[in-house]
Amino acid sequence: MTKKPTGNEIRQTFIDFFIEHGHTAVPSISLVPGGDATLLFTNSGMVQFKDVFLGTDKRPYTRAVDSQKCMRVAGKHNDLDDVGRDDTHHTFFEMLGNWSFGDYYKKEAIAWSWQLLTDVWGLPKDKLYATCFEDEQGSIPRDDEAADIWKEQSGFDPSHVLFFGRQENFWQMAETGPCGPCSEIHLDRGEEYDNLRGTDHVCGVNGQCTRYLELWNNVFIQYNLFNDGRLEPLPAKHVDTGMGFERIVSVLQGVDSNYKTDLFTGSLDVLRSLTGHSEDQMYADFTPYRVVCDHARAAAFLIADGVVPGNAGRNYITRMIIRRGARFGTKLGLHEPFLAKVAEAVIQEYGSFYPELVKSRGAILDNLTREEIRFARTIESGTAQLENLLSELRASNQNTLDGHRAFDLYATFGLPFEISRDIAREHGLDVDEDGFRAAREEHSLASGGGKAMGKQGGEDAEFFAGILKDLQKHKKLGEHGVDYDPYTSPRVEGEVLALIANGQSVQSVSFGDQVQVILPKTGFYIESGGQVDDTGYIKSLPLNSKNLGRGAGGGSEWEIEVTSMRRASAGVIVHVGEVISGQPKVGDVAIAEVDMQRRHDIMRNHTGTHLLHAALHQVLGEHARQAGSLVAPDRLRFDFNHPEGMTAEQIERVEQIVNDAIAADMEVTPKLKAREDAIAEGAMALFGEKYGETVRTITIMPASLDMPTEGSAFHPTAAAEHEHKYSYELCGGTHLERTSDIGAFLIVSEGSAAAGVRRIEAVTGRGAYNLIAHRFKLLKHTAAVVKSSIEEVPFKVESLQDEVADLKKELASLRAQQALSMMDSQLSSVQKVKDINVLAMQIPNSNMDTLRMLADKFREKYPTEGIAVLASGLTVISAVTNDIVSRGIKAGDLITAIGGRGGGRPNLAQGSLPDPAIMNEAMSKVAKVVEEKLK
Ligand code: ATP
Ligand code: MG
Predict the structure, then answer these.
(1) Which long-range contacts (CB under 8 A, 24 or more apart) does 478-482 make?
(2) Cα of 77 to ligand 2 centre, how many Å?
(3) What's this model's pTM, rounded to 2 decimal places?
(4) Distance of CA 244 from the midpoint of ligand 1 (Å)
(5) For 103-117, how does the pLDDT look when each residue is reduced to its tens digit (9 = 90+)?
């Protein structure tokens, strides 16, 4: 049995086949069609050639072949309803196509498609059908030309030409313009594929069941359609074909579903490893698996083409696809974000043909997970609300949910229309799509949507200064503006003072809007001193005595995800984020809450940074001063002055000292002081940093002085003589209360950052745990591979290395022996060119040393009148006895003359040949070259 071709091989076979027939391979265009505002997504191969068909553009080729990324999820082509329910429709899919622009026509197109399907791919000829066009209205001529060509194909059953009308077999680009008849190729997959077996249905090509599969559509563009319905023949006729890639792969791999091809194996494996289902269990309820795989793949390709989740247009589709995928995941019991894991498998499968996936890997994984997390916060309340509406609907004997209601669910809970409709349908009900659209339109008009976010950076400082003045005038803010306290207030209550969207101050915003929020006070840290911004949430305050009566009712609940912070102008601190549910309004009372888990990770890294700084002073000296730093949740990066790389021993000691300081459970104490005093006390200040009159200091010192334990590398007295301070720095960052909260500290890398500046990257707490767990896993894996216990891995690896070295030595000596005996046997085949003994010979598996030894051996035998050219792999050596050198033949010239490159002495040269394919030819040239040189 021959091995089944992989999807990647099948795509390549298609492309290669048409290249062999004079086609130029053209890359896919983006899913976002450039310069075509009428189209949301590229939905067929034709999109990138539209201009050529319209005659407004020309290409340097007249035949092309491609695999085009397509999305059919909106507009005229929307297959979303079929996805997951059947095995042959996707939202995202690839369309293979061959193209003729005024070049070949029906004869070649049909013959080649027949040849590829039957000769190259070996599909059974008696199972293939071809449809041709016959106008049911009788005004456009029947395409007998195509039908006749089909009947000429060898082995094609003439009764398998079937005629269909305009709907199926006539293609037009638009109301007017290029158009023509199509010829589709269908495959009869056999009775067992009939999903309606035993029922009364049309079982045939373009019938009702799944037995006959449409594989490939060949469009013959031959007319120009005018306003008045007149058709005129085009001067140049074109061929436009589209074959469903996933479908042909399913056929060639002999599986009954696109999802059972190797294109989806990786994704399904990931999902099954998460659900714990067996294959049988998966197939028993395959729909959610199919939907998740389809949507994860589509989302990955969309994000790679720059379409991130958002509120309108294309971005809405990406959001909807991700959320819908996540909801089908919940049907499989998956509640934690999981789509990024599936997307990894997609990148793995498609990355080599579509490198944009690899390039955008970070963005893909990030956007998927963020969107899932946002959705997870509202999906339950959203669906609960919807279920209420659906019950009311049923109670009043109606079956279609009002579109405005569905839009409210989107605007409030981020529940996309398509998901509301899924849920309604699960209850046997429906949602009014037109109503939803109308509501959305009204809303986007009302909120001035569509405009880009306003000025960024410092450019809008004046605008924000104006807002501040206004708020101060109305006594909403005091003279210092927004109150900033990241140290003691991770949760702050306050009135929403201002909302800024699209660069304007607005009264309210709603789901999906990018927004900047001003509150009277904030506990969110703003990036400074290397420590990154806090993130978190601002929520409407749950109804209580304080805000009773203020917009009461479920609709007043809202939430904003804060993704970054800004000091927009003096006294104005804004929370930057996105509305993830509800409709926040100016005047609402809200609570702003820092993501404390993330903040804790940051604090571990910040306090850890101070310990590291102190430890570096101990190990390297006082000159090892901070030159830059980054304190993020997942790692810390610390740059310091030091002229050379640290030794492994120094790195180990630093790590040890920091961990001892952690275990010593020291107290971390912030204090405000006069700058002069702090500096006089020896607090470390950063060169080049500006400090005010009052500074914040961070002291780390043992709670009691008899702390250090025996054998500890930590000596507080050595670290900071004054007052037994272990570390004393000027710092505005947020810190732990005690060092033991850091947990563990591990140095990940030490390297150069700039001349005289070294950089250490390290992890603490959860980051350290993850690193240990990851390394441990690798170690366990290594132990299993080398078949030893973990403790013995180093010895085992060493002994394996010894063994390999011995074997290498043995092999080399065996090869040398072998080469020698080969040489001996070949000496008899030395050719005579005039009086000269010429040996040209290939000796497999020999290195330069062996070749040199053989050359010596040759010269022993022929001290005069001898030339040897010896080669192995691409390596060549050439030896010429001295008497021949004086007759004008140099060793190096011989190598050049046979097509190689090299050099050396006149009597012994070495070099290489560029290509193994020319080796035989090169060696056979030697004698001739010698002869010519003698002339
Ligand atoms: P179908 O009737 O099966 O939906 P179609 O008539 O919409 O197909 P075309 O527009 O002619 O298909 O597209 C060309 C080819 O692309 C089809 O022959 C089919 O193999 C494939 N194809 C079309 N839609 C999809 C889809 N949603 N998912 C995967 N492949 C598709
Ligand atoms: Mg279709």
Answers:
(1) 480/571, 481/570, 481/571, 481/572, 481/573, 482/518, 482/519, 482/520, 482/521, 482/522, 482/571, 482/572, 482/573
(2) 7
(3) 0.74
(4) 6
(5) 999 999 999 999 999
